[in-house]
Amino acid sequence: MMLSKGLKRKREEEQEKETLAADAWWLDPSLPAAAQAPPAAASSSLFDLSVLKLHHSLRQSEPDLRHLVLVVNTLRRIQASMVPEPTLPPVPSPPAAPCVADSLLASSDAALSASMASLLEDLSHIEGLSQAPQPLVDEGPPGRPTGGSPPSLGTLDLLGPATGCLLDDELEGLFEDIDTSMYDSELWAPACEGLKPGPEDGPGKEEALELDEAELDYLLDVLVGTQALERPPGPGR
Amino acid sequence: MAGAGGGGCPAGGNDLQWCFSQVKGAIDEDVAEADIISTVEFNYSGDLLATGDKGGRVVIFQREQENKSRPHSRGEYNVYSTFQSHEPEFDYLKSLEIEEKINKIRWLPQQNAAHFLLSTNDKTIKLWKISERDKRAEGYNLKDEDGRLRDPFRITALRVPILKPMDLMVEASPRRIFANAHTYHINSISVNSDHETYLSADDLRINLWHLEITDRSFNIVDIKPVNMEELTEVITAAEFHPHQCNVFVYSSSKGTVRLCDMRSSALCDRHSKFFEEPEDPSSRSFFSEIISSISDVKFSHSGRYMMTRDYLSVKVWDLNMESRPVETHQVHEYLRSKLCSLYENDCIFDKFECCWSGSDSAIMTGSYNNFFRMFDRNTRRDVTLEASRENSKPRASLKPRKVCTGGKRKKDEISVDSLDFNKKILHTAWHPAENIIAVAATNNLYIFQDKVN
């Protein structure tokens, strides 16, 4: 059961079934917990509230991980309860009159998963950068000696040549996770198809534009940094 | 009535009557953020009581010796030492400010005249030595009484300096700084019964330290997923067993506790025991997970039980039974129907602590409206008391409080909707041997004692 696009879930099938069964009670209106399983409208406002909390949390410079995880898990529960029939195949075209919940799901989905994913990834990358020089901290002998470089050196150590390798690996990891919204702007819409097929289904994907050679050359030039950004010629908007 | 037990009290005999003893802290309505108390801890003898606050300060109170000429100042706590433990820091690489708030203080057992404690903020643990100086040397050869150096060529005779008494001075000095070992926020520290090592836990990892060694620690638990997107659970608290130096527990945001044995492997990612109470299907809600998140875990002094605090209850577990707790005490069940509002105002994320009485016969935890709750495990009775300036006459007995949950509100009862959710008692401590408790109410520290008969 995919709760939201873009969020990678590497669960075992049994675990998925278990989760489905565990959460399926949301769909049973006869349960006495109805007092706390509010109707769709209330679910939707709870959903909004949770999304707000999540965004607020993500905006903190250093989010409270416990708070974040609890809000995300609660949001998943609410999201699950708002999907009417999780076992049906996905509807090919959007419904004629989408309910509030669906439109919320659609609009917030990509942004939510993207920002959540990027934040959680950032946390792990930032950790790699700021940790004192122990590139093998997760390997090596049992008991994993870690931590505690002398306080005077601190994070400045990483800027030295000795740890160049570590920094390179982490830089690569950082770039892997670039915010795809930059490709969704008007200027870049023609580019995203050809250059970054990406896992997320960004909103720009529906526009299937053809890249001609001139546009491709132009874009490559910009990437290399030799040309200032300006509106490309041709069918671009 | 409140819990029985404690040294000298006949079991099940006298009912305890809690009385106001002292209150520390400013009286103003306007509370400075820095003055908010963030941790309270008695030392092993109970003679010292330490508090840490959001401003990074530690204040230690010492119990006065009983004085025959002033029988009413029976064991009062007065300020012994105050020092700045942690300062705000700036992590330049991450562009983040590191809060100076003291998350936890833990005392070391006393081995000589000096006292030692560990204090921690989100990132750094420090070992502080608190020592007394009541003598000073006079009659140095190389310098004058006012400290000026004497000209060595003018010195014609040698004298032996003599020690003279001086006013007591209490000095706190940082002896060790354990830094750079935690990426995430430290929530717990716990001194081992071997008195040589201690653990520190953050959201995803637990490290083991030797008190003498600051440049390295051993990582013994790591629950960080390879892919941070898969993160669904964090560590919320951890503690060493009081007697078995190889055993510790850690609790999670999903309401589980894992007991680990360091003898079975150096990496304790696999637990020896797993404590979780199955969810009651009839009380499920969107907030089930949040309210099951454990905010504190404490072993009993005996080492046979442990106690967990989740949002609405306190549970006592027998370490030999993992399937369910042996006791469950409701702290403020009347909040169950208000979870949505409490989620909205974030109160549902408040982290309450809990503590055992010295004899393990009673447990205590805080609530809202400056209420705190005590449960007597023998008599099965519980009581709600309030820490407030209004009830602060010397040796005045505390009157039990009651929250009205519905229907007609009786006199002296308070309705759920009138509770002040900004007045939360998150931190409490119980003297290790006597019936003396310390309760932190925002920026005030209340000390209550039982009425001596």
Automatic annotation (TrEMBL), chain A:
GO CC terms of this entry? nucleus
Show the segment(s) annotated as Disordered. Answer: 132-152
Which parts of the sequence belong to the SERTA domain?
Answer: 39-86
The record ties this protein, via PROSITE patterns, to: SERTA (PS51053)
The name of this protein is SERTA domain-containing protein 1
What Pfam family is a match, any one?
A: SERTA
Question: Which organism does this record belong to?
Answer: Odobenus rosmarus divergens (Pacific walrus)
From TrEMBL, chain B:
Q: Which residues form a coiled coil?
A: none
Source organism of this protein record: Odobenus rosmarus divergens (Pacific walrus)
- Classification via PANTHER family: PROTEIN PHOSPHATASE PP2A REGULATORY SUBUNIT B
Molecular function (Gene Ontology), one example = protein phosphatase regulator activity
InterPro entries per the record?
PP2A_PR55 (IPR000009), PP2A_PR55_CS (IPR018067), WD40/YVTN_repeat-like_dom_sf (IPR015943), WD40_repeat_dom_sf (IPR036322), WD40_rpt (IPR001680)
Entry-linked SMART domains = WD40 (SM00320)
Q: Which gene encodes it?
A: PPP2R2D
Q: Which PROSITE patterns match?
A: PR55_1, PR55_2
- Sorted alphabetically, which keywords does the UniProt record give? Repeat, WD repeat
Any one GO CC term of this protein is: protein phosphatase type 2A complex
The protein depicted here goes by the name: Serine/threonine-protein phosphatase 2A 55 kDa regulatory subunit B
The Swiss-Prot or TrEMBL record describes its family as follows: Belongs to the phosphatase 2A regulatory subunit B family.
